[in-house]
Design a protein that fits this description.
The chain is an alpha+beta fold. The chain is built from four helices and four strands.
Length: about 140
């Protein structure tokens, strides 16, 4: 897969090591309605081939580093693994940082978080290990 090869090359360049895990979450479209399922209506979601890819590798220093090939001008975003707060300096990374923070505050483990519907939330939840493994 061409995109995965390119991502692996960029990962090695930005982080100095190979990834240990690769994830893909397909995008989706709703052919019938938006926000109607919880109002008693019908929806017909379908997965599409476009989606979100993520490559990850573990760290032991308590620092997380994120990079988006879609926003290369923002460079590598670095933040503490625990206790991170929103910052204008983080830009796009505030979204996954927020997911990590909510998981941390709630004591939610990785497997529980995977029930969330957002592709980015799912990739973030898979990329970060649970802080409280007994609650997974």
């Amino acid at each position: 897969m061409k995109i995965l090869d390119e991502m692996q090359e960029v990962f090695r360049e930005k982080f100095g090591a190979a990834q240990t895990h690769a994830y893909f979450s397909p995008g989706r479209v709703n052919l019938i309605g938006e926000h109607t399922d919880y109002n008693g209506g019908h929806v017909f979601p379908c997965a599409i081939s476009l989606g979100t890819y993520a490559l990850v590798a573990p760290r032991t220093d308590g620092i997380s580093r994120l990079y988006s090939m879609n926003l290369p001008e923002q460079g590598v975003v670095q933040f503490p693994m625990h206790g991170a707060v929103k910052s204008d300096a983080y830009g796009w990374a505030n979204y996954p940082i927020g997911v990590v923070r909510v998981m941390e505050d709630a004591g939610i483990g990785r497997r529980t978080a995977l029930t969330l519907s957002s592709m980015v939330r799912c990739r973030t939840a898979q990329a970060f290990p649970p802080r409280h493994p007994s609650r997974c």
